[in-house]
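Re-running the complex after MR caught last week's input typo. The corrected sequence lines follow. Everything else is unchanged.
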Amino acid sequence: MANEFKKSKALTDKKFHYCPGCSHGVIHRLVAEVIEELDVIDRTVGIASVGCSVTAYDYFNVDVVQAAHGRAPAVGTGVKRVHPNNVVFTYQGDGDLAAIGMSEIVHAAIRGEKLTTIFVNNTTYGMTGGQMAPTTLIGQKATTAPSGREVKDYGYPVKMSELLSTIEGAAYISRVSVHTPAHVNKAKKAIKKAFETQMRGEGFSLVEILSTCPTNWGMTPVDSLKWVNDNMIPYYPLGEFKTPAEVI
Amino acid sequence: MHKALMKGNEALGEAAIKAGCRYFFGYPITPQNEVPEYLAKRMPEVDGVFLQAESEVAAINMVYGASAAGARVMTSSSSPGISLKQEGISYIAAAELPCVIVNIMRGGPGLGGIQAAQSDYFQATKGGGNGDYRLIVYAPASIQELVDITMDAFDVADKYRNPVMILGDGVLGQMMEPVEFKETALKNLPIKPWACTGRKKYRPQNIVNSLYLDAEVLEQHNFDLLDKYEAISQCEKAAESYMTSDAEIVLVAYGTTARIVKAAVHLAREKGIKAGMVRPVTLWPFPDNYMRDAVTTRTKAVLTVEMSTGQLIEDVRLAVDGKVPVHFYGRVGGVVPSVKAVYHEICRITGQSSEVPDKIEKGIRYFFEGGIRING
Amino acid sequence: MTKITFEEDTCKGCELCIEFCPKNLISLSNRFNDKGFHPATVKNTSKCSGCAICARMCPDVAIAIEQIEYERGAAVNA
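Corrected-run output:
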């Protein structure tokens, strides 16, 4: 109904433990709304990773398997191969997916594994206190790069959507953000498209969501949103990098 | 029932299929490559899933996922690959998921060699992964036993909701022996109401997890695991006692080494030496009861023989509890001890010095008065 | 008519709703909630159009919006 808003049935009653202004809360809500709207609450299995969202099993009202750091795509592969009709999604941060889990995410895409990955990119290791991540920007300070990330030691931040979009088995790869209401709406559309890609059996889908970490960035939540706009989007352009082939 | 001549690795694959295993995730590593290769062909024939993962790490995590989803699932690897799996194994044990993990052991440490060894006993029985957990560990000594154990392993894993490890070695994996598969009617696999299959009919969510941030809750979880391990310890110990009832020297060995030791026991008996053998079939729970039964007032010494620098011997010593000296003879790195060398060791220990050659065989020997001597 | 509810004990005072309300209706209350935050609140709910932008930006799903029909002074579907 127009102009109505209430909590999705795919979320539990548990209050989120995330920091004030953290994008995880918004993203959890969007994923839950998509699961409910696609009417797949009873056949979805979520794979929780290791990071601030490790307790995602407390929030998503679906079956959830908690996976070791970086291994969610492999765990999801195990679940999906046993129950191909289930909708299986992984929910991973940038340390989990782009550092320790780089092999698992790339190979899930290579295999065209029919999974959907929600990739929360906030340029930091949030849960452990703000260490540098593969996605930390040049010059951006982190607790393990106190003078700011330097190219000579760590190279350039990795652009996961671009990287994965070169893989044949990846069917839908897009990058969105949640820093304004319009972007939140677009993010939800992308997440829905990703789940639908899986449900049509077209291959691997991933939505990279540029997100805030006000606590470790040392900013207010509102300023964090501006930081996404001013600093992240210029380096991590938004858009669809791979879409399912048109059926002729 | 007819017998087939099969290679160990392949018989293992067939046994898993016969036990109802329909999911296998693995990775190439010598000397177990025939396991994934056999299952790559066989799994599709039974509408199962074979997947070669990108690494042993990925494979064990696929096992974790498939098991969490309620499936009968197996992985196999060899020593360095099993090292890679340790994190996943700890998670599987913590989440109380059933699965079968096979280690066809090779020489180590590190990249080591590709020939048989028994240097992963500690890794299998004392942890390997973090935390207080146990694997049920089997050590078959023939391909028939490998097949029988594999077929039971899935039931045991489901019964206790625990990972089961089968510890083979390169000899067992590569050799060929006649084997028959007991044709069990494809039983109804147990229902797993805890599995993550999707909230059918909106039942409450199932969560498979090993994280418990509240210390008291985690402690209780560990208490529960301990209770389970106690129950397994009470019920599942298995070993073969061979000619131990009147033995003056009791040898202890498992797997391929036990076959060599058995032959040495025969040689000793021919010379009038009362030798016997305890062959653990479960390495965990360790069959200490069999050890206690075998080491009687008649026993003068125990000799542990391993293809390692001495791992099983620690559990043997614990079980013997100081009653008699526990000696050791071992070869390692892929070298297999000879029957003659073990026989000479029996003679040396029991004082039959006339039988001991001047140039004693190479190997590691522990001495009761302390110290290790490596000959050759 | 639009009914907007703020779950005060869920609110963490992040102010994202305040930033984006097109009519600037939302402000932080002077009260503390039981988490120690000043929760967001709307003083003049009759001006709320129910656009739900605040609800969509809220990271804690603390805002709910319903449409209530009134008949002869009583809420029909409250």
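None of the earlier attempt is carried over here. Residues 23-242 of chain A form a domain with the Rossmann fold fold (CATH 3.40.50.970). Strands of chain A lie at 44-48, 63-66, 87-93, 116-121, 170-177, 204-210, 239-242.
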